[in-house]
Amino acid sequence: MTTGFSPETTAAVATARSYTIGDLLRRTALRTPSKTAIINGDTTLTFAEFDEAVNRCANALTERGLAQGDRLALVSHNCWQFVVLGFATARLGVVLVPINFGLGAEEIAFILSHSGSSIVVAEDALTPTVGAAIDTAGIDAIRGAIKLTDSATDGWEDVADWIAHPDAAAPQVAVGDDDPVRMMFTSGTESRPKGVLLSSKSLISQYVSCIVDGGMSADDIEIHSLPLYHCAQLDCFLSVDVYLGATSIILPSPDPASVLAAIENHGATKLFCPPTVWISLLRHPDFDARDLSSLRKGYYGASAMPVEVLREISRRLPEVDLWNFYGQTEMSPLATILQPHEQMERAGSAGRASLNVETMVVDDEGNPVPTGEVGEIVHRSPHACLGYYRDDEKTAAAFAGGWFHSGDLGIIDAEGYLSVVDRKKDMIKTGGENVASREVEEAIYLLDGVAEVAVFGVPHPKWIEAVAAVVVPKDGVNLTEDQVNTHVESVLAGYKRPKYLVFADALPKNPSGKILKKDLRVAHEGLSERA
After folding, report:
1. What pLDDT does residue 512 have?
2. Looking at residue 72, what is its pLDDT?
3. Helix, coil or strand: residue 290
4. Which residues, in sequence order, are bridge partners of residue 368?
5. What is the reported pLDDT for 531?
């Protein structure tokens, strides 16, 4: 149907109806200008000050030639400057590319090259690694440094100067609600990560689901300690707080002592941690010494929470309600939620589809499977991403049949509760981070003397799942554990490296030659106990 409007009228209507990530902060600042938005060390910003910093930074980026549709890569630990850059790029319609600060130069170089980033920002301590990545990628990029330490940053512009730009006027850029504003890189079973494109529509619809089903409100005071390059902390929590007008306490890392001190010092009411971090908090000597009585809402995700840990949290933090968030980057990232009153009676469940999501499980042909049977978990939702950047083939496969295919296997019971039973994509989730087994395998295969290798996850008391590798040396070659570890350290980020290494004469295979990783998991599930 045509509206019969002129182009000018259509543009005016679109501007009046604008509902993008760049709009959220401005509207919150108009509602509550003097309320504290961010506390990060010695820096405190009200929503009005936060909004102004975003405008100044956006105008500085425009002055440097950044325009709608361009990409800005960001490699940094958590800091208030990270958040300002995130909203400044959104306000310009520039695509933010957050990058895992634990990656090596070669890994970062691939992301920079694939994304086509024209500005690269890194915290000062990471500029040597990121600079090497820029050179390896062979891109002509403006370099900006976030000064968090006294590290030298020769050849890098100071991001503080961008945020202090003299022009504080709001940029006038017409950004559509389904224009890409984020490119999040995620590793699947492939050796190279994929660039997941997210729009304001994807993200804001996900924020609404988080708010309604996650019991979130403007009165929250939240600790943000998990990496902001990750969708979970950035988009299930921090950006939601900005949307609502809640207060965010930003910590550089989930150091247990720092998290516990921040809860006490700021009267924090809300905290998200993967199970590994909840366990580290419970085990820390400060847990019983700190006043944690303000805490009311707790969230976990990335992996199932052990039942004994659930019981311990309930006993030691009796006033805290817990939610389990399940999803993945391609869902912005929330898909299903297990509510507080369901934690014990349905321990291990991923809950039910959140407000703006439909979820079902299907067979290999895309047909729904009967209740209680295993199938691939698929979703239909405005949360879903726009697709994988410059990869039509993988995007078409992921959205086959008009559903987003998660790659996880699960069961939905008669009441609609989802249990994740396995991963169709051979992914290891260790300490809340995704590790593609194939990427680790290919890295180990680069070592002379390796005939075969299989990488898989095994249970671990701290990391929930740990990376394990079984290596078959070539005939006549005497490989040592030190040789393999030294090689792996040179090519992979720390969290991807095998925590357990086993040598074997052969790998178990089926008649068609496929390695039976299920058998390997069973045979080596007690590695953490034997180590």
Report:
1. 43
2. 98
3. coil
4. 362
5. 57
Work out the average pLDDT over 322-340.
97
Cis-peptide into 370, omega within 30 deg? no
Alpha helices in 93-181 (DSSP H): 105-115, 127-137, 159-163
pLDDT of residue 296: 98
Residue 446 pLDDT grade (very low, low, confident, very high; cuts 50, 70, 90): confident
What average pLDDT does the segment 207-212 reach?
Answer: 98
- The CA distance from 474 to 491, in Å, is 21
Residue 303's closest CA among 87, 464, 157?
464
Residue 152, CB-side half-sphere exposure with 13 Å CA sphere: 3
Residue given tokens 């040179």 in the structure block: 490
Q: What strands, in cross-sheet order, belong to the sheet with 404-412?
A: 358-362, 375-380, 404-412, 418-423
> CATH number of the domain at 427-530, out of 3.50.30.10, 3.20.20.80, 3.40.50.1010, 3.30.300.30?
3.30.300.30
Q: Which of 261-265, 272-276, 423-427 has the lowest mean pLDDT?
A: 423-427
d(CA 187, CA 190): 7
What b/e sequence results for 447-479 when a residue is b if at least 16 CB atoms lie within 10 Å of its CB, and e otherwise? Answer: beebebbbbbbbbbeebbbbbbbbbbbeeeeeb
Beta strands in 354-498 (DSSP E): 358-362, 375-380, 387-388, 404-412, 418-423, 427-430, 433-436, 450-460, 464-473
Residues in the chain: 531
Question: Lowest-confidence range among 203-217, 227-241, 242-256, 274-288?
Answer: 274-288
Distance of CA 250 to the CA centre of its chain: 16
- The pairing of strands 221-224 and 270-272 is parallel
- Residue 434 pLDDT level (bands cut at 50, 70, 90): confident
Distance CA 295, CA 221 (A): 9
Which among 274, 344, 294, 291 is positioned nearest to 315, based on CA atoms? Answer: 344
Encode pLDDT of 451-502 as tens digits: 888 899 999 988 888 999 999 998 889 999 999 999 999 989 999 999 999 9
Q: Using CA atoms, how far apart are residues 332 and 105, in angstroms rounded to an integer? A: 27
Q: Work out the angle at residue 232's Cα, subtended by the Cα atoms of residues 194 and 375, and round it to the nearest 5 degrees.
A: 65
- Per-residue pLDDT at 189 exceeds 80: no
262/237 Cα distance (integer angstroms): 17
Q: How far apart are CA 104 and CA 90, in angstroms?
A: 27
What is the pLDDT confidence band of residue 448, given thresholds at 50, 70 and 90? confident
Q: What is the DSSP string of 161-211?
A: HHHT-S--SPP-----TTSEEEEEEE--SSSS-EEEEEEHHHHHHHHHHHH
Cβ–Cβ under 8 Å, residues 351 and 326: yes
Q: What's the rounded Cα separation, in Å, for the pair 338 and 321?
A: 11
Dihedral sign (CA 465, 272, 100, 145)? negative
The class level of CATH for 22-36+44-175 reads: alpha beta
Give me the residue spans of the domains in the chain: 22-36+44-175, 427-530
The predicted structure's pLDDT at residue 285:
94
